[in-house]
């Protein structure tokens, strides 16, 4: 069983012992509801480092007042069992009060305390409809990196904008941690693995394979003609998604470092991304799914 650390003090004591032994530490931050995508990050961390720690913390500051904080899947016992099977050394499972000693409410206007905002790459794409999201992500990741002080930290490419935000934050705040981004893990159909897939029926999961298929067609357009415009790629992906009956929130072709829209010339490494809404298996409303491909 991995060591379960509940407080910042406990994590720092654990890390200090490894530091004195000159051992490297890999860190995988998660919100729990673990799947094979998370475990692929864990396995890479174990290959790269002497020890690995995983955090499980559903971060309230990245949810808006009307979003699914209460409904977000929480499966701690199963998560710990998976991490035990993976031979993870330690798991950090803090309470909200541990991570937000000044308290936290969902309304940004009523929040008190210190927060981190990464200008220039947080307002577009996901940030259009979720303006508080990357402020919350940057804040909690900065706190976690400050606590764990890992040699390397691991993220999945599915959350492409998050990866850009974290890379820029680590660079600008001079944090001594290497950020490693690993390929998106997918179901056999191509659907990106996500904790929110738990909201979907088998039928909706099957229909949602159209997301990756559309993105792949957009990538193929660039592979066949590297002079193609970004707007042409976006138009093709948008059409394929709509024709598949999906409710599209956005499709974008973005610069890999700045996330600026690439409407004309497309640079290698560009990110073609989308967010769509699909029906939930139970109750009313929709689940929001994101995915992307890299033009390389």
TrEMBL record:
Q: Name one GO molecular function term.
A: ATP binding
Which GO annotations describe the biological process of this protein? pantothenate biosynthetic process
Q: What is its EC number?
A: 6.3.2.1
InterPro entries per UniProt: Pantoate_ligase, Pantoate_ligase_C, Rossmann-like_a/b/a_fold
Coiled coil (UniProt feature): none
Q: Does the keyword Methyltransferase apply?
A: no
Q: Where are the transmembrane segments?
A: none
Instruction: Extract the PANTHER family matched here.
Output: CYTIDYLATE KINASE/PANTOATE-BETA-ALANINE LIGASE, PANTOATE--BETA-ALANINE LIGASE
Record-stated family: Belongs to the pantothenate synthetase family.
NCBIfam families in alphabetical order: panC
- Name this polypeptide is given: Pantoate--beta-alanine ligase
Q: What is the lineage of its organism?
A: Eukaryota, Fungi, Dikarya, Ascomycota, Saccharomycotina
